Amino acid sequence: MAAPINLLSLFIILTLQTSLAVGVNKPNPPAFLLSLIKDKATYLYYTNLNLGNNNHSPLTHSLAVDLGGGSSVLLRCNTAVKSTTYLPIRCNSARCKQAKLDSFCFNKTTTCGKYVSTSFTEHPLNTLLGIDSVSLPILKRNGVTKTVHSSLTLTCTNDANALKLKPEVVNGTIGLGKSLISLPSQLASMHKTPRKFALCLPSKPTGLGSLLIGEGSPYTNDVFKNLASTPLIVDRSSGRYFIDVNSIEIVGKNVPLDKKSRGNAMICTLAPFTILQTSTYKAMVREFVREAKLLRVAEPEVKPFEACFSSKGMESATAVPVIDLVVNGGAKWRINRWNSLVKVKRDVVCLAFLDGGVNMKTMEMVIGGFQMEDHLVEFDLEASKFTFSSSLLLRNTSCTQNMIL
């Protein structure tokens, strides 16, 4: 069995390789490395970010990762103003003009506003623009991290019901969408980092996953020989990320897809599990049950899941059928048992896919966080490419392996 792989070391190796490739005299753009935490109850993946400088003591915010988020940080306004260094952005200021086309000024106020897209609201959210300092860890070439402080444009909302998140877990979001004020975009403007980021979502609440913004994605020829990629599609109006899923296979057998279900799959970390259009979902359940060599649990089934099984024997190599999402270009995003079955109670696991109904409004499939756990996924906004690995568990490691910052 191969020795466990230190993922932090992989970040360092690629950072060094990139530095040598561009030449010793050219400064290497920084790579920003944030740790990710999984909340067991809500399946939210979040990071703790330090904002402001209240008497040299910043406020720590727990922020859910939102791939479709148009703002670097989105908070409730009564939370944002608790920082003594928070400043609202005024109308007609340079920062307001930089927000471009959809920035505006509210009646009876001089504060600049902006409609911001999120993954949890159907329409863009009405927000106010502000500035505060943020503390971000940079991965240095020797493997240690140092903290840098930057002035960040962020947004807040006065709509108490807008942030449909669990306040006891997170109090805002960190936005990674393709917009002018998302976190990757602002860091690219301020620090000349490439417009790309990589995620490694943790599967266990006891460990730390990672979000890397900039160059230095943890890919090496030795470990990630089976990296695959497909075109990354960005929705112009929302900044959300999509890929084309042309078909689904279970143990190599095609699952019949509704014509509308071909392609147009949104990638969303705020969706706990992958959501399918009804006809596709039912076809997948039928085929998975037919191929699974597990005892099915008949009653009671565990909502919202339909196909549940006894977990006894699932460690067998042939007990749990492999699911492949066949993407544009022919590559296969393989979903092994760790990402296809979720434990719901003692000795019971369920197929971790959900029925999204007959008429899913804006997309035919939503690829959720559970299916991405312990996979490395990279969003290259400059090359319009989405890159993904097979499960790291197959390589005797995980997204939580030695990722201590």
TrEMBL record:
The lineage of its organism: Eukaryota, Viridiplantae, Streptophyta, Embryophyta, Tracheophyta. It holds the Pfam family TAXi_C. It comes from Camelina sativa. Belongs to the peptidase A1 family. InterPro entries: Aspartic_peptidase_A1, PEPTIDASE_A1, Peptidase_aspartic_dom_sf, TAXi_C, TAXi_N. It comes from the Eukaryota. Residues 1-21 form the signal peptide. The keyword Nucleotide-binding does not apply. Transmembrane segments: none annotated. The keyword Signal applies. This is Aspartic proteinase nepenthesin-1-like. Keywords: Signal. Residues 45-389 form the Peptidase A1 domain.
